[in-house]
């Protein structure tokens, strides 16, 4: 998919993305401290079933499980020499799962290292990290790219620049924010829109963060600044833990969908769910919206 094709598609219809991956895989037995990428390749049928159910529920974009498949994150698990292999195999796994019923997005996120002057990571080093992963995702056959759960504007702009050099795929960007639209690193996403668009972002918005009931004002502020489609991919409300240590979220499917309606009215055009959501949440969104 080219950037022009994405712009035409997103400009004429409401697009459903997938829901959570991590919270569903942990519920299926994935250990928190193990490499998610390696666990997924050891348990491919679990992931394929989940992603197939998202496509059947109505998701038109499904993220490949490459969230932390960059060399910095993989180094913590002794997998730094497997960046290309893991991204290609995981992208292929998602393509098998959705069977052409959804576009596959190569998933990227922050490296966990701070850029200069706050940390030791230079822009050149970070650019190389993102370029390597994006190049592998392109070889894996993804249709577009999504950099999500971002906290830093500078890191996001670097990822966009890397994508622009490596390929012509559309790049969606979403940040994790508080109810005022601010990231932990001090980025006001609405105010960052012009810079993101200048660097080629095909869609801009928020993911994870909060429940949809706390993001209406944030989405409206982003919409006021943006000329590209707006992403809303919030959690299923707020998390809680029972006595056994199991995490659950406060919103059921119907409640989530009703609040998501308000985000669409506020300007969101590409919607889905993050932590706590399942294919049933996407099916409810499709029914309601």
TrEMBL record:
Cofactors that this protein relies on: Zn(2+)
Binding site for Zn(2+): 208, 274-275
InterPro entries: BHMT-like, HCY_dom, HCY_dom_sf
Residue ranges occupied by any Hcy-binding domain in the UniProt entry: 3-289
Protein biosynthesis found in the keyword field: no
Swiss-Prot/TrEMBL keywords: Metal-binding, Methyltransferase, Transferase, Zinc
Domain of life the protein comes from: Bacteria
Stretches assigned to coiled coil: none
Pfam family name, one: S-methyl_trans
Listed name of the protein: Homocysteine S-methyltransferase family protein
Source organism of this protein record: Ruminococcus gauvreauii
